[in-house]
Structure formats: C-alpha cells, structure tokens
User: Fold these one by one.
Assistant:
Number 1:
Amino acid sequence: MNPHRRPLRGWGWAARACWFGGWVSSSVLAQTAGDLRVPSYLTDAPASQLPTVPNRAGDPADAFRAIPGLPYQRPTMAGPGKRAAGLTYGFFGGVDTSYTDNALLTGNGLGASDDLLVTTSVGVRLGYAITDQSSLDVNLGVSYRYSMNYQSFTQFNLVPNSTLAYRLLVGDVMLNFYNRTTSGADYRSELAGNGSASAVNLNRLSNSSGLTGIWAPTKDVSVSAGYSYDINRGLEDSFAILDQDTHSLSAAVYDRLSPYWTVGLSAGASFTSYAKNFQNDSTGYSAGPMVSFSPNDYITISASVRYQIVEFSTSGTVGDRRNFGGPTWNLSASQILTPHLTHSATVSSGVTSGLGSNFTESLSAGYTLGWQFMKNVGLNASFTYTDVKQSGRSSGLFVYQVNGVNYLVPVTVTLNDSAVLYDFHVGTGYQFSPNLRGSIGYSHIIRDSTFATRGYHANTVSVGVGISF
C-alpha cells in the first residue's frame, strides 16, 4: 500500500449511499450501497426525477429482461476485464435473437403482428487510476438490431449505460463528474397499437451530465448533493413531442444507527421543459424519509415515503390542467434463502410525466426469484403487476403542428385511460466458460384497459449468447 495515500475513511459504504449514485459508473459507488442497506430504488436513479414504478412489461423487442443482482444477466454485459499497470480494460459482445407474436402491441380483436429480431452488440470498458485520489471510467458499446418485418425496428443504438466518469477526492469530499448516454427502444404504459402497421417504438436518445459530491463526516453518516442536466430526444420525428430538457437538484443524508438500522432523509427538485410545446412544462419538488432494517446478513426490509408536488404550466398543446400533490411510497423486502437461492418483493406507488396528459399515476407490486440450481446453470423468474391512470381526458390519434408541418403520433392514445399490466418472465442461463455464456428467456405481457382496443397480449421467446474478455 502507498504510505502517502489518503485513507478513504467511511467511503467503503458512504460513496454510493447517495441516492443518485446509480448514474455514475464508479467502482467505489458500485460497491457501497449494500453495506449501508440503502434500498436500490433510492440509489438507481436521481431522486429529483418523478419516481418511476418499476415496469418490466417493456417493448417486446427487448429480447432478454435480466433481473439485476441474480446469477445470470443479459449476455452482452462486460466481464471483469484485464489489468495493465493503472489501466483496467475489457471487451464484450453478444448476439440476441427474439421472436414475438405481437410486435406492434396491437389491441385485442385487431389482429396481432409477429416479428423476428436479431441484435448484435460490441463494446469496451476502461478504467484508469490517474492518481491515488482520482480515476477515470469509460464504458461504451454499440448495437445493431435487425427486424424481419418492420423497418422502424431496424436501428443502431448505444448499449445501455455507456458512460464517462471522473472521480476524485478534494479534502474529505468525493466528487464525481459524469456523462451517461443511452439509446434504444423504450416503452410507456400509456401506449397501445392502433391496429395499423405503425410500430409502437419509442426509439430515443438520452444523455445525462452532472456532478455529485459525497461527504462522510463519520463512519456511519453520509451527506450527498448533486446536479444533473438531462436531455431526451426522439430518433423518429413522430415522437418529437416527448423531446425534453431537465435540470435536477438533489440532496440526502443517511445515518447507520446500528448494525441493523439505517435511516435517511432525501429531497430533490426538477425543472422540465419540452422542445415542441406539446406536453406542458413542469416543476417538481419531493422530500421524505427512509428506513432500512436488516436483522441479519440474509434479510433486508426497506421503506420510504416522499411527499411530492408537481406543477404544470400551460405552455403546451395538452389541455390537461391538473397538478400533482401527495405522497408516493415504496416498500421492499429481500432474502437470501440459501447461497444459491434468493428472492425479493416490492410494492410501490409513484407518478411519472404523462404522454398526452400531465402525469400518469401508478401502483405496482412485483416478485423476483433467482436460483442457481447447478454449478453453471441459473434460473430467473419474475412477475410484475402495475395499475396505471392518466390525469387528463381526450381521445384519438394526436396531430400537432411545428413550423407549419403536421406530425401524427402513430399510436392511439386515449387520455384518462386506466389500465392494468401483467408481466411474467422466466429465463435460464448457462456459463459455458469464464468468458462465454448463453441464455434462453420467455416473457408474457397482458395489458387490460378500460378501452377494449387498447388491451393486448404479447409473447416473446429469446435466445442469446455473450462473450467477454
């Protein structure tokens, strides 16, 4: 050990205790939240954003929905890599093939449309220790997805979580400067096919840049604050109504009262403006406590409550005039049953920015199971129930005008829609060697809407293989 290196006192758990740390690809941030027992729903995204209820009933084009933290992940993720002096590097690649019987999410009674998708991806992960007090991390990947039946599904994308992050210590404060870029098919619970050949495909580019700072005054207390600037742009003009810029501020403090209890308080603010003046701009504030209880190394129970206020302007074409004010909450429990068997459950409520309305409220419950039943073979299974309600009321295909040009949203969006979504997934993976792994998965999605034509069923079967070195 370098005798002149500043000890990272308290950083072993404090660094990723900041609830927005999930946006920073820092090795220190990646290893610390679990020690503090801070629940993942506080660490995986900026808390100043409107809370998004987990909904894995995504675009059927997403071939393999891996369950984070369980034995077998999506096969295109990078491995641990190699080391040369102060440089750590690794390469990864993969091929995913999936078949879905309803790629357009066509409503019940309107007929389904099947599709075969093949996605090839390659990428590199780099880490460089500049000094004992600073490091640079880069994770970059690209993919090409080919659709047999629908041209709009054929596209180049960035592999999720392509990042550039610079980490350094200034006195007793750890600073993280970062930029995170991703693109690809997205999904919104408000969408359903309209019975035509128009693909329900939110192919979008997102970029988040920001600064986070973390201070650990004692070994059991962590204080954090941060700022981020996020842009979200559609790669297809028909969805330009969702193009937006968001400035976010967030702060949090966590205290480990004992080996069993952790408490915290967090707050955030966000300011969102839309480029095409269709959706209404918004300003949001949230604050609230959290508590986590871990009676032993195998069980963790966490809960959080936030009071949120989201106010919307009248800058857009959307006629919805409702604002949101009220509590949102999350309760989760996880257990390690055996060294090879884990499971968890989550119940939560939340609110997200709307599509054709100001906001969408959600109530969600989910269960996941991970089982490594043989040395090189694992099984993942999950079920998610989500109830969604839109805040406004209108109907029909959206037509909007920008600089004299009419744009048509190629999906039927009925405001004030109320729907229940069920998402079931099961998958298995096999580790052929330390560098080669494969997976097989099956997903079944049901959307049950108050409007018959906006309900649908979709089945997806996927096969993937990935390599890392």
Note: The two ends are 28 Å apart (CA to CA).
Number 2:
Amino acid sequence: MNVLVIDKSALISERLVVLVKDAENIEAVYTASAYAEAILIMEQVRPDIVLLDMNMPALRSIDIVKKIKKDHRTAALIVLFNHVNEIKKQYCDFLGVHFIFDKYHDIEKIIPAINSLTNGKQKVNPAL
C-alpha cells in the first residue's frame, strides 16, 4: 500500500516516514509539504493512506481532506493535530476521517492504526 505524508515540517515528515515504513504491507511512502504538492502527488500516486498534519497554513488541511473525500474516496485518512479536543474530533468524524491523533502525545498509535488499515489488504489496481 502507498502512503502519503503531508506535513509542513521537513523534520516531522522525515520522522513520520521512518515510522510509517515500520507498518505492515507498506510499499512506498511519499511526502508533501504544501497543498499544491500534495494534490499533485495524490493524482499521480493515488495513495491508499494519507497521513495529514491538520495545521497546514491557510486552512489548506481542510481543503485536502475535502479533496480526498471527493476525488479519492478509497483513501484512508489519518490526521494529526498539535492538540486534539472534542470539537476537532467531531468535525473530523463528520468529514469521514478514519483516525485522529495528537501529534505529540499519540505518536505510538500511528503504527497500529496503519496496520489496522493494511492488514489483509493488498494493493488493488483500480484499472482491473
């Protein structure tokens, strides 16, 4: 399965890539640090899982979530906040996000979440 990590911080992206590569059934991990780059990669790669920093500049993270839900409905969404509260959880549930984590306190939950999405699943070619 292909994973796209979207985070404005190169350092955090690098750490997330290392983390994601430890998950099961991961074929490739791509990174994007800005909205336009993320959209381009999504169109080219069609990731199975998107790991998204919800603190992107100019509310672009919400735009990315909406774009994924509209154009890439089969992609699973894992979002990261600097701080998670009930309102953010409810809004993400409304948007159809699969997992919501606090970027600094829930990092150990990312691998089990990805494994739950990838276990028993193999990459399927949508053209077949």
Note: Confidence is low (pLDDT under 50) at residues 122-128.
Number 3:
Amino acid sequence: MGLSTHVLDTMHGTPAAGMRVALFTTAGDTATLVKEFVLNQDGRNPDGLLIDNDSLKCGTYRLVFDVAAYFKACGVALPEPNFLGKVSLDFGIAHADQHYHVPLLVSPWSYSTYRGS
C-alpha cells in the first residue's frame, strides 16, 4: 500500500540512478513540498515508499522529475534550451487504502507514465 515511484532511463536502458525528484501535495494552484530525494541505483526512492499506507490521504499530488539535470550528469549533450527540463506529473489518489505506483519512463525527448502496481 502507499505511494511509490520508479524511473527508467529509456535512452540507456537503465534505472535513472541519481535523478532528483520532488513530491508535492496540491490544492488548486497551490503546491506544498512533501519531500525531495535522489533516486537510488534501482531508480527508486532510497527510503522505500514516498508515503506509507497509514499516511496516504485522498487528494491530488505532483511528482517533479529533474530530467535535464539527470541526462546532463550522464554526459548527454543536450540542446539549449532542453526539450525536457523537469517533468511534472499531476495525479489524484481516490482510494487511500490502495497502492499507487507512479513510474516514469524517460529519455531526453520523451516520457511515459501510468498507474502501476
């Protein structure tokens, strides 16, 4: 249960180790930072769940992935301005008793997400 994320670098075919991520709660135009973290070698939050089952609440959230900084750190020559700088995913949690997994598949030029399990 709870909330988790996982990022895969589709350019290199690896987890996006070292990518910075921020989690926010949202209410209208207001976003409140919950936590910031750097993905581990598996492309996941090193502390496990972003929000555990007991703390997960129904509502709206935002994950912000620092894609450009990650690919620059990997040595990828990116144009200025970058096609993708930060990828922001806004999503809702309707059932706090269920697990919400928000994966990101990303390259410097594209991304995809879905509700995982």
Note: The mean pLDDT is 97.
